[in-house]
């Protein structure tokens, strides 16, 4: 048995921060990141047009954190927005720096978007103005989430009072989505907070849609490709003329270049693939070439019969 020194044990040990919840798996992180990347792409031009100012939102980081970090961050001057994602059971929280809120208000009211750093808390009227701005953003939220889960976004509460956080499951971990808002030459911070229970419900709802959608698209593409390949395969079609009767002496006396008269072709002839009849035809000419003209189409046989006919030996005159 090989013994390890204390230094070797310490080198192999992985530090664990028990205050940090377990992170999301790679596929879950990818799904949630995709939703929020699409969301900021939709919101950036929408907010820029409403505020009449160049604005760009970008996702900075996704991280599972303890709920006390939300309470600590909300204790600084912030605007808190509860958003219901119907039919998910618990609201999410949008927290934005008060500086971003005040700059947006100044722009909405016709100002240049320059706010005293000391700032002030928005009045009830100003909160209603911000609420209306956010309500214009809800269709974009629905559209972004709609890639994985059908939801209907509704503004529940817009407030600066941290007491509204008491309605959330603060004993659970939260997924924090950090978003940067660049307005002019200043960067502001926004955070979206999703309770772990809601996130779990959402990700469970994602799975059937992801597993149902991908194979169906793949199957449709496979069927389409297979159909193109099969319909491009050349097959031999034959027209059978009525047989003629000849004596053995006539057959034995045949010479090179002799012409054998065929029977009457007043009745339609059969156009076949293998032994499967496809149509009825009559003799014709196409320029200098012998041809046949379709008189009627026989009802399409099952594909299995066509495939069997294609594998069977050819007979008759081409």
Question: What do you see in this structure?
Answer:
The chain has about 325 residues and is an alpha+beta fold. The chain contains nine helices and ten strands. It has two domains: about 20-210, Chemotaxis protein chec; about 270-318, no CATH class. The chain has helices spanning about 5-10, 25-50, 65-75, 100-110, 125-135, 140-145, 195-230, 250, 305-310; strands spanning about 55-65, 80-85, 90-95, 150-160, 175-185, 185-195, 235-240, 270-275, 275-285, 290-295. Helix 2 (about 25-50) packs antiparallel against helix 6 (about 140-145).
What's the topology here?
Layout: H1 6-12, H2 26-51, E1 55-65, H3 67-74, E2 78-86, E3 92-97, H4 98-108, H5 124-135, H6 138-145, E4 152-159, E5 174-183, E6 186-195, H7 196-231, E7 237-240, H8 248-252, E8 269-273, E9 276-286, E10 289-297, H9 303-311
Antiparallel strand pairs: 1-5, 2-3, 2-4, 3-6, 5-6, 7-8, 8-9, 9-10
| Name of the CATH class of the largest domain | Alpha Beta
Report the end-to-end length measured between terminal Cα atoms.
83 Å
Structural class: alpha+beta
| CATH architectural name of the largest domain | 3-Layer(aba) Sandwich
- Rg over CA atoms, rounded to whole Å, is 38 Å
Number of helices: 9
Task: Label this structure with key terms.
about 325 residues; Chemotaxis protein chec; 2 domains; about 40% helix
Summarize the structure.
The chain has 318 residues and is an alpha+beta fold.
